[in-house]
Amino acid sequence: xxxxxxxxxxxxxxxxxxxxxxAIFTIRNNCQQTVWAGAVPVGGGQRLEPGQxxxxxxxxGTTTARIWPRTKCNFDASGRGSCETxxxxxxxxxxxxxxxxxxxxxxxxxxxxxxxxxDMSLIDGFNLPMDFSPNSGGCTQGAKCTANINGECPDALRxxxxxNNPCTVFKTDQYCCLGQFIExxxxxxxxxxxxxxxxxxxxxxxxxxGTFSCPSGTNYNVIFCP
Length: 226
Known about the structure:
Residues 1-22 form the signal peptide. This protein is an alpha+beta fold. The protein has five helices and 14 strands.
């Protein structure tokens, strides 16, 4: 019985530690339109009217995580439907990444040296402006993209509701950084278009100038249309 109690106490303390070190992500819709946020692997999805917020407690150790805006969605009572941009297999509660184009907040929590690593990515194109920034613990540097990318989008990348990425449009190793281009992937005129307007964001798969870090336990804001 004593052994069981010790194990139980250890489990509870461990659980409390992980809860206390969870990162709180506050997602806010500052757009003038309804936005359906997508979030994986934690959260799923949430409809946000203008001015509404959605808070997620994301446990430490979470990796390959994304939050992104979905636009012009229609879902039935069972949560099935579609979105013009950012659609995740027709589900309100996302279990997969969003379809291009979509502006993406990416993160991995409590990784090397007990730091979080995060970025804003335009590798999958752009649908709405975004601010992805820490809001606690003295960590201040994040990524913000407020340029008129949809209005200035190159003709070849224009699509309904956003500005597509060249990999989706052209499907070549050069733009997708596949095959022989994996190790020597270079920026293109299209990635330079995104980078020149939003220098804080990643613009192609080998971009090394857009990753940020904060101590584990930091909380974050993800703001659509900042």
